[in-house]
Amino acid sequence: MSETSIRKIYQCIANRRQMFRMFDRHIQRPNQWAGDDCALYRGEWFEINQPSHDYMFEILPPLFMRGDLFALREYLTGSITSVFFKLWIDGTMRYFHAYCDLSDQGSLDRMRAAIVEREAVRTMTRDERLEHIWSSTADDYRGYAGDRWPETDRGQRTVTLWSPGRGTILKLLAGLTTDEIKAKVPVQLRHLPDAIAA
Q: Please, which of 6, 61, 89, 113 could form a disulfide with 43 given CB 3.0 to 4.6 Å?
């Protein structure tokens, strides 16, 4: 798992319902059983609340436990599984879920380091804003570009949004303007400064 593949996908603290929605955030992808989806999930992470962390610890015996983390016994795809972290950050115990590739020795340590480093600053990159929009948008209002889109856009993520003068439109997630992103990000996150890298 390279440093660039590690990415925060939700900017708030997810409760149990939101956590399970995050687990299924790629469920609508085209050809979901046709190939290796490891790259799609590898390195995704988000913060959860303590009850969600404890619930996941209690539902099945973990594959393994190591101090501040445990891994789920059931693999998502290939060698990717859910890993739950309990980390002290700025004097507070916080809880995180991440998809780690257990075939990559050192991936757990890199994930832990990336989370701690990222949480030390209160900024958001454009990509983090887009990932948050994707994660928090209901399934009925997000999807993938199909046959009606130009061939170069097919398979890319889309979201439905309201546009002044145009009404409800379907747009590529990656093509959202700064104003459209600002409108879709929760109010409490709009003030966060832009970051060049997370």
A: 6
